[in-house]
Amino acid sequence: MNERELFLKHIAQTSPSPLAFEIKKAEGCLLYDTNGKEYIDLIGGISVANIGHRHPKVIEAIKKQLDAYMHVMVYGEFIESPQVQYAKLLTDNLPPSLNSVYFTNSGAEAIEGSMKLAKRVTNRTQIVAFKNSYHGSTQGALSIIGDEHWRNAFRPLLPDVLHLEYNSFKSLDEISEKTACVIAETIQAEAGIMVPSKEWLQVLRKKCTESGTLLILDEIQAGFERTGKLWGFENFEIIPDVLILGKALGGGMPLGAFIADKKRMDAFTENLVVILFVVQQEWLQ
Ligand SMILES: Cc1ncc(COP(=O)(O)O)c(C=O)c1O
């Protein structure tokens, strides 16, 4: 069997007609197939290769790390310098309220984590998202993406999710003191690059502040200079409560993150106490 046949046989497929481009090498903005033919890559791994494929500095960092250690412990227990230094670099380039980074393996996982954070911080359950949005394919992320076509086959999904019209002032009236968080792409990417008005995002920010709702901005596509500024939200003169990053964050490595104020992020450190409390209550019944 040739590689194409093996690919179709052994790699789980997500579409009936995959591109099946047989890649040999990627360098800068170029891709090469197994016949040595050169292609200009206008996709960039869908917002991943913002600084090109195999950037020398990324390669150097990965090689250096391979010679030191790879996985050594579960998340958050050991002090691993590259992780600490990356969190510092990110937060040094963000507003002071975005000072604590939770790294994940993917964008969708960062979305999941941010929803859990909002529930813990607010003690509310309602999640507001927007029509035509895309936030990933895990069950939580799937629950909030804005297209029933993708959600339908996987119901039941997360309850208490409200899908509002993006960039509509009227829809914002639905945000209330029941809402744990509003999750929005700063610029809707998969919907066809839908740029909301500055006023709308500013009113959304105000509504969230007034109702004690966390504003979560998904910049998995809009971040890392893709709008001409380092962060997409800078174009709209607002600051989210939680910022979600992915794709270009890892420069080709699988990496996501959600970033919030440490006072809020500390809600995760108390999980054990809550579990013990719940278990105790159940025993007593
Ligand atoms: C805006 C946005 N959010 C979330 C995701 C999910 O990220 P991942 O594929 O790393 O899980 C994507 C991926 O395309 C995305 O474009």
What does this entry look like structurally?
Helices cover 33% and strands 16% of the residues. The protein has helices at residues 3-10, 44-47, 56-66, 81-92, 107-122, 139-144, 148-151, 198-211, 262-265, 271-284, and strands at 23-27, 30-33, 38-40, 100-104, 126-130, 161-164, 179-185, 214-218, 242-245, 256-260. The relative contact order is 0.14. The protein binds pyridoxal-5'-phosphate. Pyridoxal-5'-phosphate is lined by residues 46, 106-108, 134-136, 185, 189-190, 218, 220-221, 246, 256.
Termini, distance in Å? Answer: 62 Å
* Average of the residue pLDDT scores: 95
| Helix/strand order | HEEEHHHEHEHHEEHEEEHH
Which molecules other than protein and nucleic acid are bound? Answer: pyridoxal-5'-phosphate
The secondary structure category is: alpha/beta
| Low-confidence spans | none
Helical amount among residues, as a percent range?
25-40%
CATH class of the largest domain: Alpha Beta
- Strand portion, in percent? 15-25%
- Rg, rounded, reads 21 Å
Quickly count the domains: 2
Which architecture of the largest domain per CATH?
A: 3-Layer(aba) Sandwich
CATH superfamily of the largest domain, called what?
Type I PLP-dependent aspartate aminotransferase-like (Major domain)
Q: Any idea what the shape is?
A: globular
CATH-assigned fold name of the largest domain: Aspartate Aminotransferase, domain 2
Number of strands: 10
State the major sheet. Answer: 7 strands, mixed
Strand order of the largest sheet: 4-10-9-8-7-5-6
Figure out the total of helices.
Answer: 10
